[in-house]
Each structure stands twice: as structure tokens, then as C-alpha cells.
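Progress note, project year one: complex with S-adenosylmethionine.
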Amino acid sequence: MNLSEMREILSREGIQLTKSLGQNFLHDRNQLRRIADMAELTRADRVLEIGPGLGPLTELLLERAGEVLAIEKDARLVALLKQRFPPDPSGARTRHARFQLLHEDALDFLAREQRNWREWKLVANLPYSVASPILVELAQGERAPERLVATVQTEVARRLMARANEDDYGVLSLLVQIDFVPRDSFRIPAGCFFPAPDVESTCVYLQRRAEPLLEGAARGVFVELVKRAFSQRRKMMLKLLKQHWPAERLLQGFEALGISPEARAETVSLEQFVALAKRLS
Ligand code: SAM
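Model obtained:
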């Protein structure tokens, strides 16, 4: 689907795009192909796509993967997608028979459904306003997909990939990197979307860790620790954590892990947060 086809469909159907739903559609074939390439799809793959829009990425995913489940919030787009990818009456495993479309708010669906996504890959050009909560919801825990390939606002991409002592390092970096390793990324120019967004876009690829860094109760402690430590970025982390854990235990942990009592959260690595969570749990 190129730009003129996209414009034609939207005007034929009388669809005015909704900014609050992040409706910036990707029409550049090269960029769409690069996203699908990064997912390294085979017929054995099951793909979750959030926000299929008019379906330019969906089309590629159906060509390459075994199964695609797409979740779209806008009823007008759901109706269009149903026309574009109708169910196959013969029931044969044609590309349309391998496509399932849900008319849902993806965030509500993910929170409610608690499905096991371990055998799935997320491949999506996400609605930017809800990209972070969607990624956190999907990435945490034992049910997370094996790979996340997501186009997000560049600022969010930087946070997803940041390490300690980098400006963008924070809660989002740690809550995702506890289970995922950032592997690759590429910028997508604004002109590749219709309409062009006001912000820059980047596609990121995160791979689920082969072995979880934390299990059981320590995971809950890690989340609490990270949220409290970054609740006031400029404050010493020890001061913030003392409100919740005994100072003595914290100091022992800090010393054993080589964390200065004056350290701010942004200087503490993922590995140090993990080790501290283990000690406190
Ligand atoms: N994948 C398409 C593309 O690349 O052209 C569209 C991407 S567009 C950035 C985001 C899409 O997500 C829109 O179709 C929008 O309607 C949909 N969307 C927005 N919020 C949503 C939500 N909470 N749940 C599911 N879909 C949502």
C-alpha cells in the first residue's frame, strides 16, 4: 500500500484521522520491509500486531508469518481491515485464514487476557501515546513474547535502550531490560508516515533473555525498588529507599554491591538493581 492508495482509501471511506489514537500510517515500503526483516519471520511464527491501522504492515506479516493476531481500537479501521482481509469461506489455511482481528483497546485486552505470549513475536507500529504502557505490560514476567519489534517515538526508543549513566536511563529502561536485551534499532523519517508526525520515530528490536534475571518474590521487590529509586531523580537513592526498607539492610547491600551511599539511581546499573532486589527480598 503506497501513499496514494492510502489517501484514496481514506477519502473513499470518509475517514478523518484521529490524532489522539496516534493515527500516523507508515506508507514507505522500504521501512515496512525493514521492520518485518528485523522480526526474522518464518511460517512457524505467531505475530501480535497492535494498531494495524489500514494494514500495510499486516500485509507483510501475513506473507511471512504463520499466524497474525491484530488488535485495533478504531471501529472504522476494523471494518476496513475486515474487507481487506476477509475470512476464507473454504476454511483453507490461506493468508486470510491465518489472520485474527480484534476490535479492542490493546492495553485493556493485555491486562485482562493474561495470555501466554512466550511463543509469539510482537511486530507493531505502536500508537505513541500508549506505547510505553503497552511494552511494559507485555514485557514483564514469564508470559512475555520472545521478541519485540516496535516502532515508537525516538525518545521512548532511547529510554528502552539506555544504560546507567545515560540521560534516558530510568524506570522504562529497567522494567523492560530486566527481561529483554536491546539488540538493534533504526530511525524512520517523519515523511515515511501519513500524516507526518511531529515527533521522530525509531524501530527497536528487543530480544527476551534466555534465562530470567529474577524470579518469584524478588521480581516484585525489583519493580518497587526501581520505581522508588527514580521517584525523584535528583535525590540520593538511599534517602528514597530508606522510607520503605531498613537503612541498615540497605547500607549493607550498597556496600556489598559497590554502590556509594550518595549515589543517585541513574548511576546504578541493571545488574546492581537486580542484586539489591535479591538481597532485599
Ligand atoms: N500499523 C499501522 C501502520 O503502520 O500504518 C498503523 C499505525 S498507527 C501509528 C497506530 C494505530 O493504533 C492506529 O491504527 C490506531 O487507531 C491504533 N490504536 C491507537 N490506540 C490503540 C489502542 N489502545 N489499542 C489498539 N489500537 C490502538
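The domain at 3-208 is CATH 3.40.50.150 (Rossmann fold).
The longest strand covers residues 180-188.
No further modelling is planned for this target in the current period.
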